[in-house]
From TrEMBL:
This is Probable membrane transporter protein. It is a multi-pass membrane protein. It comes from the Bacteria. It holds the Pfam family TauE. The chain crosses the membrane at residues 6-27, 39-68, 80-98, 105-125, 137-163, 175-192, 198-217, 229-249. Keywords: Cell membrane, Membrane, Transmembrane, Transmembrane helix, Transport. It is found in: Cell membrane. PANTHER family: MEMBRANE TRANSPORTER PROTEIN, TRANSMEMBRANE PROTEIN YFCA. Belongs to the 4-toluene sulfonate uptake permease (TSUP) (TC 2.A.102) family. One of its GO terms (cellular component) is plasma membrane.
């Protein structure tokens, strides 16, 4: 273990990774989303895509232990279940694509997906009505592919929920529950394929400490009366992370 920890401290950009995951924890705690949108573009500067996916999903499971108990009672579990089952089927497709595409291409996909998601949210795009089960399955399936390929487990579902008419507390709970389910699915697939290196596991454990702490802080700050503040704060942090992680800049 001491050797593994020494290897973690020698990880390129470890300070930036720790600061970024801490900021992501704050945003995740008070909005229910945003970790991957913040962490993945920055982590992609220092780590290979497969390591990024392993770290973000393993640390995601850690934060879920802080957020899931309260979200469980507020979420629409049937709706989230349809999304999660569809993602379960398509995550292996994303992981397979990860082995076929080079690092630069994956980083560009991360940037494009994040920019499209952020632009759609900031523009105020909304839809009314209730999504059908096939529609939910399509959204969940797309989220599974993108999650397996890039580690961005939430954009499709985040956009779906934040563009809808549901109350912010419900949006937050549904998003937390879905992201928890997808993290477990991706980790299970990685373990099945024996794709999680010991160094990745130790790095995830180290980063999970600041992430867990800041997630609790963010959750304590959450107040449905300040929905607009939460959303714009999250948008700003995500924008900074996306810009800093653009492949053309580093």
């Amino acid at each position: 273990m001491p050797d593994a920890l020494a290897q973690v401290w020698a990880t390129p950009g470890i300070l930036w990774l720790a600061l970024t995951i801490g900021a992501a924890g704050l945003v995740r705690g008070f909005t229910g989303f945003g970790t991957a949108l913040i962490f993945v573009p920055v982590a992609g500067i220092f780590l290979p895509p497969a390591t990024v996916i392993g770290v973000i999903t393993l640390t995601g499971i850690a934060s879920t232990s802080a957020l899931l108990p309260k979200a469980w009672g507020q979420a629409d579990r049937r709706e989230v279940g349809v999304l999660a089952l569809a993602a379960l089927v398509t995550v292996p497709v994303g992981l397979w694509l990860l082995t076929r595409l080079d690092t630069s291409m994956v980083r560009w996909i991360v940037a494009i997906v994040a920019v499209i998601t952020l632009t759609s949210l900031v523009s105020g795009w909304r839809f009314s009505g209730r999504m059908s089960r096939p529609g939910l399955a399509a959204i969940g399936g797309f989220a599974g592919v993108i999650g397996g390929l890039t580690g961005l487990t939430g954009p499709a579902v985040i956009l779906f929920y934040l563009a809808g008419q549901a109350a912010v507390a419900s949006v937050r709970a549904n998003t937390i529950l879905f992201l928890a389910a997808l993290d477990v699915v991706i980790v299970a697939n990685l373990l099945w394929q024996d794709s999680i290196a010991w160094s990745t596991l130790v790095l995830a454990l180290v980063l999970a400490v600041p992430y867990f702490i800041t997630t609790l802080i963010g959750q304590s700050l959450f107040d449905p009366r300040h929905e607009r503040l939460y959303r714009w704060a999250a948008y700003g942090v995500i924008a900074i992370a996306v810009i800093s992680g653009l492949p053309i800049l580093n």
